[in-house]
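Why do we care about 3D structure at all? Because function follows from shape, and shape follows, mostly, from sequence. That is the central idea of this module. The next example makes it concrete: a single protein chain, its amino acid sequence, and then its structure expressed as tokens.
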Amino acid sequence: MSRQALGKGLGALIKKNEARAAAAENEVDESRVIMAKVDEIQPSPFQPRRTFHEEQISELADSIRERGLVQPLVVRRVNGKFELIAGERRLRAIRSLGQPEVKVVLMEATDREVAELALIENLQREDLTPLEEAEQYRLLQTRFGMKQEVIAQHVGKSRAVVANMVRLLELAPASRTMLEKGELSVGHAKVLLQLKDETQQTTAATRVVKQGLTVRQTEQLVKDILNPDPSRPQIVPKTLPAAYESVCQQLTQDFGTKVNIAMKGKNNGVIEISYVGRDELVRILQLFGVNAPL
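And the structure:
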């Protein structure tokens, strides 16, 4: 019997729903593979990713144009229509090519299984921003009643990691925006969560970004805000010279992500290039001519 190859995350779902089948984990019965009209496939409401890079979609479209669709989309029927389970970027690429039909694997899956699968698939590819990951954890908790311990087991992380990620959703709006842009790291964000006052937190977050503070320096900053000590020397802002600021702005524009110069002395320092997710790291490395199997 012919089989279609699928990802490991999908393999787990398929194996669960085909208990009587002797298929391997990464395969599915060819009888489930059908052709579907592209305009009849609806996106999944459980897709955690909000941002799709057009450059990556374009590259994927070029690959599909040259080699065809290697891995079919996975869909389910909902109210008589097709709803996507996996393959959002492939679907977007196919739509950009104007193809009327596409090969899909028709599966049966509950809302909870789809939401869980969407999270696992994206985590495997490290595609999610911290907030996208946190929102999906919260969805599994609130909509499907999954406890953090259970979620942690399913995604291969500790309960503490899941709990800390969900707490990121408590950040003030301005802090969330900085985290989303990659200006703040998850480590910075966890420290800033100690500041419950929105104004204090936003002011502190802005200072962290502007001054390029480390996580340890941020811990001290938050400590000083919560427990001011007049005798303690404050962190002195290091204002970059105008020429350096201009360089940072130019590099930020060239790389398409936040670039900062942290001066450690008169003639030395560190150039910091922020990235969110594996795909963005790969993209930045390619700008340097580095093609590493990350």
